[in-house]
Amino acid sequence: MAINQNHLFEDLDGIKCAIVEKNVLTQRASFLQSLLAFNGYTVVVIPSPPPKAAPAPVPASAAAPEPPAEGNAASTPISIPTPAPPETFTVGVTDTAFNPINAIFGRLLRTPDGHIVTLAYWRGTEKESHDEVPYFESGNS
């Protein structure tokens, strides 16, 4: 059991894993898998269970349908199909001591080109990671 919400554990395919991210799309799952595998972690990716959906409320006009009048096709109810939710995945690593927040801000992860993984790179807002000098090493006080 996790001490807090920042360090979650689950059994993924029968393997005890530290959860990296939940409900991610295919592209994000493959990015995390390649990045973490490059850094020496054994990555487990499984499909996320579908979200629990509450039953749709029934409109008052649909609760007691009136019989359609003869020759009046406009009163026939039309059913609109709801789109299927996108397939999502849960990403975890077998190292239960792994914590994504500590790994990013502790500068423990590297990109394949040798740069340190920054928060912007992890989130996907930057395509390349630019090494930032930590505030405590910059000499500015």
Describe the protein.
The chain has 141 residues and is of the alpha+beta class. The protein has four helices and four strands; from the N terminus they run E-E-H-E-H-E-H-H. It has helices at 26-38, 60-63, 100-105, 119-123; strands spanning 9-12, 15-24, 43-47, 89-93. Strands 1-2-4-3 form a four-stranded antiparallel beta sheet, covered by helices on one side. Strand 1 (9-12) and strand 2 form a beta hairpin. The longest helix is centred in the N-terminal third of the chain and has 13 residues, at 26-38. It is elongated and about 85 Å long.
Strand order of the largest sheet: 1-2-4-3
Strand content: 15-25%
Helix content: 10-25%
- Look at the structure and give the mean pLDDT: 80
Number of helices: 4
Q: Please state the CA-atom Rg, rounded to the nearest Å.
A: 24 Å
SSE pattern, N- to C-terminal: EEHEHEHH
End-to-end gap:
40 Å
The dominant shape is elongated
Largest sheet: 4 strands, antiparallel
- The total strand number stands at 4
Residue stretches low in confidence (pLDDT < 50, at least 5 long) are none
